[in-house]
Specification:
By secondary structure, the chain is an alpha+beta fold. It has a single domain, classed as Nucleoid-associated protein YbaB-like domain (Ybab, Chain: A), CATH 3.30.1310.10. The chain has two helices and three strands; from the N terminus they run αβββα. Strands 1-2-3 form a three-stranded antiparallel beta sheet. Strand 2 and strand 3 form a beta hairpin. The chain is rod-shaped and about 70 Å long.
Length: 105
């Protein structure tokens, strides 16, 4: 007589969880190697981030570096970074969503 009914199902679930965890780790490593570039000011500022949201590059058109453009430059940098980070989060959601579906992660 089985003293712990359903234990076989739990073992199967644990195996599935380990597989999902392995796939998540792999997907996260892949995201860390992908880059997304956000542009503002018609390409005057370009911010590049990885799929795991690390800023790797910031390119600023030299014409924006004059003393009178400080506020505009700040605005364009923030805008380019936010665009790149938003796209990076969307990429992560697209890649990780199928793996975490229903887990609330």
């Amino acid at each position: 007589m089985d003293k712990m009914p359903g234990l076989g199902d739990m073992a199967g679930m644990l195996k599935q969880l380990r597989q999902v965890q392995s796939e998540l780790v792999k997907a996260q490593k892949e995201l860390a190697n992908e880059t997304i570039t956000g542009e503002s000011g018609k390409g005057a500022v370009k911010a590049t981030v990885t799929g795991d949201q690390r800023v790797t590059d910031l390119v600023i058109d030299l014409g924006l570096l004059s003393a009178g453009n400080h506020d505009r430059l700040n605005q364009l940098i923030i805008e380019a970074l936010n665009i790149a980070l938003n796209e990076s989060r969307e990429l992560a959601k697209k890649r990780l969503g199928p793996l975490t579906g229903g887990l609330g992660l």
